[in-house]
Specification:
This protein is mostly helical and 105 residues long. Helices cover 40% and strands 0% of the residues. It has helices at residues 2-32, 68-78.
Length: 105
Amino acid sequence: MFAFIYIAISLYLLYNAFRLMSGGFKAAQQLSTPVVEKRQVTRAIHPEMKDVKEGDELMVVKFQPQDPMLESLKDRLSNGPEIDDPWDEDDDGDGDVPALLKPRV
């Protein structure tokens, strides 16, 4: 009786495993085919941009971060190998395997 239940459950799991894999293959095929959509622009032009014509020069303002901590972090990241790491000490040559020495009696 136990063998029959074991075989029935194994076949059920095998069937569901193949069903799940085939569903994954179908989903991958659907993702690989590109979908091209054309849309009409329906948003209104911003009120301040009404008088701007094609080719007009616009002024762009970029604010640079003035945070000293951020600048310090950027310097440390750009000079990565030059950072003095206290945990990176020279190897003392005793190996990496701990050993327990027991006296012989």
